Amino acid sequence: DVKVTQSSRYLVKRTGEKVFLECVQDMDHENMFWYRQDPGLGLRLIYFSYDVKMKEKGDIPEGYSVSREKKERFSLILESASTNQTSMYLCASSSSSTGPGRGNQPQHFGDGTRLSIL
Amino acid sequence: GNSVTQMEGPVTLSEEAFLTINCTYTATGYPSLFWYVQYPGEGLQLLLKATKADDKGSNKGFEATYRKETTSFHLEKGSVQVSDSAVYFCALSDRRFGGYQKVTFGIGTKLQVIP
């Protein structure tokens, strides 16, 4: 089974701090994603990466950056944390392979990091 | 752009009731469609998927059929259990120019099943 591991389940930081959220997957997936989940808003894509050292902005990249130095690891960075970044953060990975009849591959999610910015 | 529409809920049902959660989508091209489930305190898990029109995905008693003519992918279960209480997300996936995956999620529907 695919395992996506997020480094922390709960995290409390202060306004203005630089915050790192780490995500590791063990299935050699090409694609990795960072989402935030807020009540009434569903999942919103922050950044994604489809290869090592590659990154693409999602729908809400402002205030965030990412790093993908190795295929299995995708880090989300809050450059200067603010209270409006208090949220649940979810990491996901997926394979790029399609193959006959396989369609686009599903995403595999970590358990999430609940981040509070005070 | 692509979009997925589903009711937010909560949907409250008694145990053994029939469940339908509606999902409609707009997309260009030929997306794959998914249902994910999120249990309290956990991340999302794939529940079922369908990759082309008229495909039926099924898992754990849940079913959904890819209807291209109505752009829908409604989730159904004949008899729900208390353990099915969770948030259910409908999603579609297609390929942007360049070949990599773009996933669009619905807002999520909270299901509460009472004994």
Written description of the protein model:
The complex is a heterodimer of chains A (118) and B (115). Chain A has 118 residues and is mainly beta. Chain A has no helices and eleven strands. Chain A has strands spanning 4-6, 10-13, 19-25, 31-38, 42-49, 56-57, 64-70, 73-78, 87-94, 108-109, 113-117. In chain A, strands 2, 4, 5, 6, 9, 10 and 11 form a seven-stranded mixed sheet that branches. Chain A has a four-stranded antiparallel sheet with strand order 1-3-8-7, with no helix packed on it. In chain A, strand 7 and strand 8 (73-78) form a beta hairpin. The model of chain A has no long low-confidence stretch (mean pLDDT 91). Chain B is an all-beta fold. Chain B is 0% helix and 53% strand. In chain B, the strands form three sheets. In chain B, strands 2, 5, 6, 10, 11 and 12 form a six-stranded mixed sheet that branches. Chain B has a four-stranded antiparallel sheet with strand order 3-9-8-7, with no helix packed on it. In chain B, strands 1-4 form a two-stranded antiparallel ribbon. Chain B is globular, with a radius of gyration of 14 Å. In chain B, 38% of the residues are buried. The interface between A and B is medium-sized, with 27 and 26 residues.
